[in-house]
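Figure 6 in text form: structure in, sequence out.
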């Protein structure tokens, strides 16, 4: 059991590095992961020895190593999250009559891993493999709202971190903080025309056993459609909670 705190810290560092577009200096890791400098230094050295982290001495920065890539590739091959989510998303489409999708955070983007299209509905921009700016999408906002504030600040340190598609959405760290606060108070995320004009989405986060967001579930429908948004949001939240139970498992991993 004495190794559990160290494992937790190491995974926290890996998760932070995975959200960065480029290798980062030690001080960024210390602040984002809320670690003592000496602890972070020793953890990074161990992770370098195991191949999960690389050190760029000329730049005084740290990035993900080959072993981290191998773990990510294994996830892609096994697709456990997609396997767990496919049936609940299909049932969400049946319940709402609108298309649904599952997305995961990748840096400042969301990556769509499942799209369940409603019969007779046109294809959406949220096709499998598509990346979109997280701060503009309902799925991304649901995930960001469930992240620690320090991680959101690391992802969006200044105005340069914000991209624009249609002249809408937050364009500064302060605007994003307000939006995410409203999302938490509401219990679900929304966007209207910020990804695709004429379409709106509602989303909720899927959490792991540490209450960390691992994905976002969303339903997209026409902005001018006669739709019970409250009912759709309730269905989305219920599906996210169902997946949270599936992902967390409710039991410790076997030894």
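Output sequence:
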């Amino acid at each position: 059991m004495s190794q559990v705190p160290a494992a937790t810290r190491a995974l926290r560092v890996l998760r932070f590095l995975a959200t960065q577009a480029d290798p980062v200096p030690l001080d960024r890791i210390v602040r984002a992961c809320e670690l003592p400098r000496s602890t972070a230094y020793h953890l990074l050295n161990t992770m370098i020895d195991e191949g999960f982290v690389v050190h760029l001495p000329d730049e005084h920065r740290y990035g993900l190593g080959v072993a981290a890539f191998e773990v990510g590739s294994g996830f892609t091959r096994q697709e456990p999250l997609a396997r767990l989510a496919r049936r609940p998303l299909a049932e969400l489409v049946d319940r709402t009559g609108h298309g649904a999708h599952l997305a995961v955070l990748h840096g400042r983007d969301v990556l769509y891993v499942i799209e369940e299209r409603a019969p007779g509905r046109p294809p959406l921009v949220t096709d499998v493999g598509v990346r979109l700016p997280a701060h503009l999408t309902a799925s991304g906002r649901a995930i960001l709202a469930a992240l620690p504030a320090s991680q959101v600040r690391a992802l969006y340190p200044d105005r340069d971190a914000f991209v624009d598609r249609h002249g809408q959405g937050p364009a500064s760290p302060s605007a994003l903080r307000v939006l995410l606060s409203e999302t938490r108070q509401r219990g679900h995320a929304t966007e209207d025309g910020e990804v695709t004009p004429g379409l709106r989405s509602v989303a909720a986060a899927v959490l792991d056993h540490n209450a960390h967001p691992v994905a976002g579930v969303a339903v997209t429908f026409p902005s001018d459609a006669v739709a019970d948004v409250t009912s759709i949001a309730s269905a989305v939240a219920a599906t996210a909670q169902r997946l949270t139970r599936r992902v967390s498992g409710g039991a410790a991993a076997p030894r």
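Caption detail: Residues 251-255 have pLDDT under 50 and may be disordered.
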